[in-house]
Predict the 3D structure of the following.
Amino acid sequence: MSLAEAAKSPGTPRKKAAVAGPRSRAAAPPRDTPSDRELLDRLQSLITASLEDDKAEAVTALDLAGRASFADRMVIATGLADRQIVAMATHLEEKLHEAGVKRVRIEGAHGSDWVLIDAGDIVIHLFKPEARALYALEKMWGAEFDEPAAQAG
């Protein structure tokens, strides 16, 4: 059954897509096009500007393209107090929604040392200083982590 035929049948869009079956590779748009990178660059700029406006410290952006399946970019920032971190998360959610990101998920925004914001292809981690030092995500995902593996291979 084609996607056009499935669209005419009753059911939810998810069920219709399942009935239509997988799309052929030729029909699937390429994932890493210049417009995708431009969109990610624009969203990353919006995120870092929002965090800097909220007085976040040590804002770091990492490119995960080709290294992680869950996201293409990661932004890490530090906040000094719970209220500041919650405000940063709330402001990011509002600005991303205004920029057209429909589903922004936030975990840990109710008094935690670590808040995770999932904006699709970009994930944002907001830490208190002690938690950031403990988890050391920059070391885990940073370029210096990959260099010994590249030399060994």
